[in-house]
Amino acid sequence: MLWLLIRGSEMTQEELNEILKKHEMWLNEEEGGERADLTEVNLKEAKLRRANLSEANLREAYLWKADLSEAILFWANFFEANLTGADLSKADLRMADLRGADLSEANLCRALLYRADLYRALLYGANLNGAHLTEANLAGANLTEAAYDSETIFPEGFDPEKHGMRKVK
After folding, report:
1. Averaged over 11-37, what is the pLDDT?
2. How many CB atoms neighbour CB 27 within 10 A?
């Protein structure tokens, strides 16, 4: 069983699933729905594949090696969150707030990062193959050793080599 620490107490995967359910209800404007607030929550290795956390607050959350693949994270707040080694492949991160987030070694392969704010984010060694970064804010972001390929779409005028990125085939 996966145990998660939330504000000093323990949370099971089942309890996290209940938060996701209420958040989905909130998104659908259903009675009893509640916006997910996972501020500073320890979600290490959490199973959030295909979860809909649009507009959720994950500010300063600890998501080390969490599975967020194919998750809908539109307009989510990940300000200064730790997403080291997280799987965000094919995730929808349009307009997400990732300022100051640690995305070192994260898998962002084919992630949609249109207009995402990655100001001062750490993307050391991240996989950005096929990622869509049109109009993303990469000011001050550390992209050293981050991988990209011919399908990666960068903001206009962005030069990946000047930012220490490496092209893979």
Report:
1. 93
2. 18
The tens digit of pLDDT for each residue in 133-164 reads: 999 999 999 999 999 999 999 999 999 999 99
Alpha helices in the chain (DSSP H): 13-27
Q: Rounded to whole angstroms, how far apart are CA atoms 100 and 98?
A: 6
Q: Where are the alpha helices (DSSP H) in 40-161?
A: none
In our burial notation (b when 16+ CB lie closer than 10 A, e otherwise), range 120-141 reads bbbbbbbbbbbbbbeebbbeeb
Q: Which amino acid is at 168?
A: V
Per-residue pLDDT, 6: 45
CATH superfamily of 42-169: E3 ubiquitin-protein ligase SopA (2.160.20.80)
Measure the CA–CA gap between 48 and 23, rounded to whole angstroms: 13
Q: Measured between alpha carbons, how far is residue 77 from residues 19, 36, 97 in Å? A: 16, 11, 5
* Residue spans per domain, the chain: 42-169
Classify residue 25 as exposed, middle or buried by CB count within 10 Å of its CB (0-12, 13-18, 19+).
middle
Site of tokens 């990622």: 131
Residue-wise pLDDT tens digits, 68-91? 999 999 999 999 999 999 999 999
